[in-house]
Specification:
Blueprint: H1 2-10, H2 27-34, H3 36-54, H4 64-88, H5 95-102, H6 105-137, H7 145-161, H8 164-194, H9 215-225, H10 234-237
Helix pairs in contact: 2-8, 3-6, 3-9, 4-9, 5-6, 6-7
Length: 253
C-alpha cells in the first residue's frame, strides 16, 4: 500500500545510471521548466513600475519607457554574463560556485544564502500575484485569495517532488499557453487600435514635466521593475540537468 501511494505521488524512481538521460531536460522542456521563474517575474514587474508612478499622477506613466529600457539593458548584460558562466562552469555555475572560486568561501556562503532567500521570495511574490490575478478575474473567489495562494504553493512543491523531467512535462502546457496568450493579447490590442475599434487616448505624453516626480521616486520605480530580472540565473544554475552536450544545450536557440 505504501509503495503504491509513493508511486502515485512521486512517480517512478529515477534510474541510478548516470548515463541515462531519461530524466534530463531537452530544450523544449528546459524552456518550460527554467523560464517559468523569469516569465512570472516579467508578468508583474512592469505593473509594479506603473503602480509607483501612478501614485504621483497618471501623467508620470511615460517614465516607465526609459525605466523599461534600462531594465532591458540590464537584462541583456545579465544574459551575456550568464552565457560566459555556462562556458566557464559546464558542471553548473550558480552564484555560490562562482563567488566561492573567484572571491572567497565566506562571500560564497553569502551569495548562496541570498539566492535561497531570493528563490523563496520569488515563489511568494509570484504565487501571490497569480492568486490576485485569479481573484480579479473571478471576484467571487476573493475571500479565498490566501487559500488559493497556499494551494498553488503546495501544488508547485508537489510537482518538484516528482523530479525535474516530470515537473517540466507538467509545466509545458501552462507556460507555453501563457506565452501564446501574452502574444495574442498584444497583437489583438494593436489590431483593435489600428482598426479604430478602441479609441486611442493618451494619458501621458513623453517628455512632459510632471510635478512631484523626484529622483527617489524614479529609483523606487526602477527597483520595483528590476523584479523582472529574477530567474535569469536559473539556466546557468541548472546546466547539470540538461541532456548532452551539457555545455552547449543551454546556449542553443
Amino acid at each position: 500500500m505504501i509503495e503504491k501511494l509513493k508511486l502515485l505521488l512521486l512517480g517512478k524512481p529515477l534510474a541510478d545510471d548516470r548515463d541515462d538521460e531519461g530524466h534530463l531536460l531537452g530544450k523544449t522542456q528546459a524552456l518550460a521548466m527554467l523560464s517559468s521563474d523569469a516569465l512570472s517575474s516579467i508578468a508583474y514587474g512592469p505593473q509594479q513600475v506603473i503602480l509607483v508612478l501612478t501614485a504621483v499622477s497618471s501623467a508620470a506613466i511615460w517614465w516607465s519607457l526609459p525605466i523599461g529600457l534600462i531594465v532591458l539593458v540590464l537584462l541583456a548584460s545579465l544574459t551575456i554574463s550568464y552565457q560566459q558562466v555556462i562556458h566557464a562552469y559546464p558542471q553548473g555555475g550558480g552564484a555560490y560556485v562562482v563567488t566561492t572560486e573567484n572571491l572567497n568561501p565566506s562571500l560564497g556562503l553569502v551569495a548562496g544564502g541570498s539566492l535561497l532567500i531570493d528563490y523563496m521570495l520569488t515563489v511568494a511574490v509570484s504565487v501571490s500575484s497569480g492568486a490576485d490575478a485569479i481573484t480579479s478575474a473571478f471576484p467571487a473567489l476573493a475571500p479565498w485569495n490566501l487559500g488559493i495562494a497556499i494551494f498553488l504553493t503546495l501544488f508547485l512543491m508537489y510537482l518538484n517532488l516528482r523530479g525535474v523531467s516530470e515537473s517540466a512535462k507538467s509545466l509545458m502546457v501552462p507556460v507555453y499557453f501563457f506565452i501564446a496568450a501574452i502574444l495574442f493579447m498584444i497583437g489583438f490590442g494593436f489590431i483593435k487600435i489600428a482598426t479604430g475599434q478602441i479609441p486611442y487616448q493618451a494619458t501621458a505624453h513623453i517628455g512632459a514635466v510632471v510635478p512631484n516626480v523626484s529622483l527617489i521616486l524614479l529609483l523606487r520605480a526602477f527597483t520595483s521593475g528590476s523584479a523582472s530580472l529574477t530567474g535569469v540565473e536559473a539556466i546557468s544554475n541548472s546546466v547539470p540537468f540538461f541532456k548532452k552536450p551539457k555545455e552547449k544545450m543551454p546556449l542553443r536557440p
